[in-house]
Write a structure and sequence with these properties.
Layout: H1 15-20, E1 30-41, E2 44-51, E3 64-69, E4 73-78, E5 89-94, H2 98-103, E6 111-118, H3 124-127, E7 131-137, H4 142-153, E8 161-167, H5 176-183, E9 189-194, E10 204-205, E11 222-227, H6 230-242, E12 250-253, E13 269-270, E14 273-274, E15 281-283, H7 284-291
Parallel strand pairs: 7-8, 7-11, 8-9, 9-10, 11-12
Antiparallel strand pairs: 1-2, 1-6, 2-5, 3-4, 3-6, 12-15, 13-14
Length: about 300
């Protein structure tokens, strides 16, 4: 008896199945070479990555890439590049677990995988013409760096621009050289604080949220971007609301539990939102109710 069935190698899906269910290209990491590694703090670095072939796809400030350490795993990392840079991407990474430990141990010439960009960006265009307040806590300044650079490049398009940045200690501040460069412009308010410091620190001491009441902006024409630990974002949003900023004009970046990056696996669900797809940037009007529930 002659069989008409098509033979396939064991473990290989039939050609018809392969055609019907192609691999989503967004799930395949693209190899990138490490161009540069800059030490920011004892546990934080900034790396520059370049695709082995071609150029990285365009991104908008606030979007996220999935970085893959071959043999270890992948994590979502916000793109911290200057938006006008087209040859490579920059990421600021703090060591907190096995994957970020592998990522922070790279050296120039090493290779990592990159998927993305994913997610909803900061609404920079909506902020044009009014005042802009950026509130960052700790490594939360990294997802805001691209936005700050974009706003400073088109400084004429905004009213008052204020960057409020807080860290646990002076040794935990990232982008210190850039902070001084931004402050030297004189057309932007850069206010930095730390939770605690020794005698060698001559700046502000206290929570970054305490800087909001003294910051110069007109609430009814202000857009605020907030990123940092979730408790800090809750208190920052509350301080902005108390100053009269609309909840619809306060935006936060809620990166948590992202795995697939395309809104299918469900790991990053918060209320009705898949944060890798509907976020990570959402208005306080949209997400505030859920971030106030500490059990979620």
């Amino acid at each position: 008896m002659t069989s008409t069935a098509t033979s396939t190698h064991p473990g290989t899906a039939p050609a018809s199945a392969q055609t019907a269910n192609p691999v989503d290209e967004r799930l395949v990491p693209v190899p990138h070479r490490v161009l540069e590694v800059r030490r920011e703090t004892a546990d934080t670095i900034t790396i520059a990555l370049q695709p082995r072939t071609g150029r990285p796809p365009p991104f908008t400030p606030g979007q996220v890439d999935m970085l893959y350490a071959f043999g270890t795993g992948e994590v979502p990392i916000s793109i911290a590049s200057d938006p006008t840079e087209t040859e490579h991407r920059e990421y600021t990474i703090r060591r907190v677990g096995p994957v970020t430990r592998a990522l922070t141990n790279v050296a120039p010439g090493d290779h990592l995988g990159v998927r993305g960009p994913f997610g909803v960006p900061w609404p920079v265009e909506e902020a044009r013409g009014g005042d802009l307040v950026v509130v960052a806590g700790g490594i939360g300044i990294a997802p805001l760096r691209a936005t700050i650079l974009a706003a400073l490049r088109e400084r004429h398009a905004f009213g008052a621009v204020s960057v409020l940045y807080g860290a646990r200690s002076p040794g935990d501040l990232v982008y210190r050289v850039e902070l001084e460069r931004w402050r030297a412009r004189l057309d932007t308010d850069i206010d930095v604080t730390v939770d605690s410091a020794g005698s060698g620190w001559h700046g502000n001491v206290g929570l970054v949220t305490r800087l909001v009441p003294r910051t110069r902006f007109e609430p009814d024409r202000t857009t605020a971007f907030v990123c940092g630990p979730e408790p800090m974002m809750r208190y920052a949003a509350q301080a902005l609301l108390e100053r009269g900023v609309s909840a619809a004009r306060i935006f936060v970046s809620a990166e948590r539990n992202m795995v697939c990056g395309i809104g299918t696996c469900g790991h990053c669900q918060l209320g009705p939102y898949f944060l890798c797809h509907h976020g990570p940037v959402l208005s306080w009007q949209e997400i505030g109710t859920y971030l106030r529930i500490r059990e979620l």
